[in-house]
Amino acid sequence: MHTLDLTLQATDRADQLSVFLISPAGTEAFSVQIPQELSQHHQAWLRRFLAHHDPACPAVPAAVVHDYGSRLSAAMTAWLQQSDWEPLRRTLAQLPGLPLRLRCNGPLPLIERLPWEALALERPIWRLDGPGPKAAAPSRRRGARCPRLLLLVGQELDLDLSADIAVLERLQRQGRIELVSLRAGRSCLKGLRQALRDPQGWDGLVFLGHSAGDPEGGGRLQLGDGSWLGGRDLAQEFQDAGAHGLSLVLLNSCSGMDLARCCTSAGIPWALCFREAVPTQAASLAFSRLLEEMEQGLGFAEALQQVRLTLAESGPAGCHLLLSAMGSGSAEPLQLPLSRRRQFRLRLAASTPAQAIAAAVLISLGSAAELLPANPISTYLLDRRLYVQRLWRQATGQGGPTRPALPVLLLDEHRSYPALGVEATPGRVARLALAEVLERTPVTTVPVVGLDVVLDQPAAHTAELAAVIQRQQRAQVVAGWLGPGAGARGAGLNSKPLQILRQAGLEARDLGVGTPAGSGPLQPLPLRLLWPVDRRNFAAALSGVADPRLPADVVIDWSIDWQPLIRVITVDELPSLRAEALVVGTDGTIDADQHDLFSAPGAIRSVLPQWGGSSDAIPGALVQAVLAQSLAMRHWLKPLSLPAVTALAAGLGVLLAAAQSRRRRRWPWLIVFALISLPLNLQLGTAQLLLVPIVLPLAALSTTSLLRRD
C-alpha cells in the first residue's frame, strides 16, 4: 500500500520538531517551529469541550465548542502554510489522494493530542504505530464469510450499552455478522484470553465500556466483572489473535489511545479510539456508523471519513476532533470479509453511471436497428450471420429440411430462345417463347406453372400465348404484377396482365418478395421481410400450401442447402418434366425497364455458378422459388428482439463487473461467454430456427463489463 509517512521527532528544543517525510516521490528531512499559540488554541478548545460535556460545570453552548474547534483547525492549517512545511506541501500536491500516516516519536504530548485527522488535506489520515513495513506474520487464509466479531462488554453499572449491543445483535439476526459476546461474568480475564486464542480467528474485536490512559501499561480497560486490565497483560493474546486474522479493534470507550497503540504494537493492523474522554453517545454513534459503512463494503479508511462527517454533523459537539485510527506499519487496506453473495450485492448496487449510459446507448442503437431493419449495417451483419450459419450447418452435417425439388427454367436470349426456336423481342420477354414453354410442358404432370414476368403491355404473339393457356386448361397458370411498393416504373394495378390473357385463364399475383425494393441495377439483399408474403403473392401460388403465409419480420433462411430443393432445368427437359409446379423466369437481363436481379446473399453464392449464373447476383425467379419452398416447408428464421437481447447482454455485463472486481479477471469470462454463445446461437438458428443477435449483444456485454474500473 503506497502512503505518505510523516514522522514528527522531538528535539532538544521544546518549540521545534524534526520532520521526516517518506513517499513514492522521495525522502525529505526538515525542521519546523511549533507556534506558541497552537498550544493555547488547543487548551482553550479542550477546556470548553470538557465543560460542555460535564454536567457539573457551568453550561457551555455547543456553538462555542464548534467555534473554538474551528479556531484550532484554522491554527493548524495556518501552521502548515508556513515556509517550514514547504516540502510537505509540495509532496502533497505531487501525490493527490495518497493516504497520510502520522507517527510521533519522543515526548510530544501536544502534537499527539492535536486533531491532525481534521485537516483538509483531501486524503485519509491515520496514526502510525507498531511494527514497521515488514512482512506480517502468516495468518490463516479464510474464504469469504460473514464478518466474525468478538464483543467484549465492560462493567455496565453506570453505562447504558443496550443500544450498541442491539446494533450488533440485529446484524447477527440478519446473518450479516457472526457475533460472540463476553458480557457480565463471562467478561473476565480468563474468558477473554480463551476467546482471543480461538483457532477460527476473528475479524474484529469490539470493546464497549470504560477505559483509561496508561502509557506504561498499554492503557487500561474495565472488564464486565469489575476488574481493570492493562493492555500489556494481553500482549501475547493480541499477537496470537493477529496471527489468526484479527484485523481491527474498535474501542468504544474513552481515552483509548494507549490501548490502540498496544494493539498495533502486538501486530493487529488497525485500531480505532477516541484520544480523550467523550460522551457515551459519541462512542456509540461512531461505532454504529463505522460498522454500517464497512458492512456496506467500504474500506476502513473510507468508512472512517464518513464516521467523522457524521460526528461533525449530528454527534456531540467537538467529538469528531478526537476520533483517531491507529495503524501498524504493515497494515494493508482493510475490508470486512463479506460473503461472496453480499460482496456481489454491494458491488451491483454500486454499478457506475458510465455502465448505465453505455447500456442505454447500445440499447438505443438496437432499437434504431429494429425500427429500420433494412439499414446497411444490419443488412451486412445479417448476411454475414447467415453465411456463418451455413458454414456451421456444413461442419455439423445439418443440411436442412428436404422436399421434392422445385424446377426453375431461366430464359435467356442466347441458349433458351434458340432451343425454343423463337426470335427475341427487343426489351421484352418474347411472348412466343412463353407459349412454346407451355406447349412443351405436360399438363398432367406439371399442373401449375408460374410465369415470373409482367405481361401488362401489348406485344407480338400475345394472342398465341392466350390461345395456349385457354386450350390447355392447366390447373393454374400464374403471371406477375408489380405491387405499389415495387419501386419500378409502371408499378401498380396497371401492371396486371392484359385483359386477353386473364380471360384465357391467366391469374395475376404480386411479385413482391416482402423485402424493400431498390433503384440500382441489383435489388437489395432479400433477407428480412418487412411485409408478409401470403396468398396474394406469386410465390404462394407455387407453394402448394392451402393457407400460405410468411410473416413480416422473419428472415429467409439462406443457410440451408438449397441445391437439392431447387433444380434449374433446360428447355430439353420440359417434355419429360414431372413436378407439382414449374417456375418460368429469365436470367434477369431481358427486361429493358428493370433487371430482375437481386444481390446474392453470401450463404448462397457458392451454389449460383452451379445454377448457371454469376456468384454475386441471383435472378428474381430463383428468389421466388426460394420463397415458394420456404412456404411449402414452413421454414424461416424468427429473429429475437435486438434491443431486448442487447439489454439482457448489457445487464449480464453489469452482473459480471459486480461479480469480478478486477477487470483482468473479467476477460476470461467474456471469452468463455463468446465461445459458448457463438455455437449455441448458431445451433439455435439451425435446430430451433431462432435467430439470436450476436454482434451488438456481445458489444454490450463487453462494454458494460469492462467500463467499470473500481
Strand content: 15-25%
Question: How many domains, in number, for the residues?
Answer: 4
Largest sheet properties: 11 strands, mixed
Tell me, rounded to a whole number, the average pLDDT.
88
Shape: rod-shaped
Number of strands: 26
As laid out across the biggest beta sheet, the strand order is 3-2-1-4-5-14-13-12-8-6-7
List low-confidence stretches.
132-144
Number of helices: 22
Instruction: State the distance separating the first and last CA atoms.
Output: 16 Å
* Proportion of helical residues: 25-40%
Give the structural class: alpha/beta
Describe this structure in words.
This protein has an 11-stranded mixed sheet with strand order 3-2-1-4-5-14-13-12-8-6-7, sandwiched between helices. Strands 18-17-16-22-15-21 form a 6-stranded parallel sheet, sandwiched between helices. Helix 11 (340-349) packs across helix 20 (642-659) and helix 12 runs antiparallel to helix 20 (642-659). Helix content is 39%, strand content 17%. The protein is of the alpha/beta class and 710 residues long. The model is unreliable at 132-144 (pLDDT under 50). The two termini are 16 Å apart. It contains 22 helices and 26 strands. The protein folds into 4 domains: 4-124, no CATH class; 148-339, Rossmann fold; 353-380 and 640-706, no CATH class; 402-634, no CATH class.
Summarize the topology.
Blueprint: E1 4-10, E2 16-23, E3 26-33, H1 36-53, H2 62-80, H3 86-94, E4 100-105, H4 109-113, E5 125-128, E6 148-153, H5 162-173, E7 178-182, H6 189-196, E8 204-208, E9 211-212, E10 220-222, E11 228-230, H7 235-243, E12 248-252, H8 257-265, E13 270-274, H9 280-295, H10 300-314, E14 323-327, H11 340-349, H12 353-371, H13 376-396, E15 406-411, H14 416-420, H15 431-440, E16 448-454, H16 462-472, E17 476-481, H17 499-503, E18 506-510, E19 533-534, H18 538-543, E20 549-550, E21 566-569, E22 581-586, E23 597-599, E24 617-619, H19 620-633, E25 638-639, H20 642-659, H21 663-688, E26 690-691, H22 695-706
Helix pairs in contact: 1-2, 9-10, 11-20, 12-20, 12-22, 13-21, 15-16, 20-22, 21-22
